[in-house]
């Protein structure tokens, strides 16, 4: 059963891709029939199975997929070959891209970026609070293939982490990390 359609409303993203707003055709989960969602490049970006949905101004494009009961909302972006599944949530200004996978009950939010071959396992929280508040923030970054390492790093360092790369973590953060 088809649960959504692409509308005529669209935006063109910074990569020049045309992304179409979606509309629910049937009620499911917390989505009502007729409700407008976020933006996708093509129908294959969002599964018709489960309660997966793209909300607000969130964008899913390229060969990225959102499925299961996953939610992508606010201004979040999921693109390239990234996958968000299970009960995972990606929101705020978060970005999941490359071949990254976020699944289970994982949450990626704030200004966090998950990319490369990174995997967000069940109950993983990855976040970065807004720097606009003027307070120091501690984003949680992770990287791995089979196990999860959660490492705090100073937000002011602007560190993003690719899977398999511990060398980009400041020494002070590595010393203070409890893994």
Describe the structure.
It is a single chain. The protein has 179 residues and is mainly β. 3% of the residues lie in helices and 32% in strands. The chain has one helix at 171-176, and strands at residues 4-12, 18-24, 36-40, 53-54, 59-60, 65-66, 71-72, 77-78, 83-84, 89-90, 95-96, 101-102, 107-110, 113-114, 119-120, 125-128, 140-142, 150-152. The strands form four sheets. The protein has a seven-stranded mixed sheet with strand order 1-2-3-5-8-11-14, with no helix packed on it. Strands 4-7-10-13-16 form a five-stranded parallel sheet, with no helix packed on it. The chain has a four-stranded parallel sheet with strand order 6-9-12-15, with no helix packed on it. The longest helix is centred in the C-terminal third of the chain and has 6 residues, at 171-176. It is globular. It starts with a strand and ends with a helix.
């Amino acid at each position: 059963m088809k649960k959504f359609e692409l509308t005529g409303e669209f935006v063109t993203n910074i990569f020049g891709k045309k992304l179409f707003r979606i509309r629910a055709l049937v009620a499911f989960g917390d989505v009502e029939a007729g409700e407008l969602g976020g933006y996708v490049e093509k129908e294959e970006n969002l599964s018709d199975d489960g309660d997966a949905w793209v909300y607000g101004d969130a964008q899913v494009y390229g060969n990225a997929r959102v499925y299961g009961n996953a939610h992508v909302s606010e201004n979040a972006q999921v693109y390239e070959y990234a996958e968000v599944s299970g009960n995972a949530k990606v929101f705020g200004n978060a970005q999941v891209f490359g071949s990254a996978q976020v699944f289970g009950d994982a949450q990626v939010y704030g200004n966090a970026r998950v990319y490369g071959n990174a995997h967000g396992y069940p109950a993983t929280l990855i976040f970065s609070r807004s720097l606009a508040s003027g307070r120091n923030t501690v984003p949680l970054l992770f990287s791995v293939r089979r196990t999860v390492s959660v490492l705090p790093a100073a937000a002011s360092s602007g560190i993003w982490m690719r899977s398999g790369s511990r060398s980009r973590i400041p020494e002070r953060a590595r010393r203070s990390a409890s893994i």
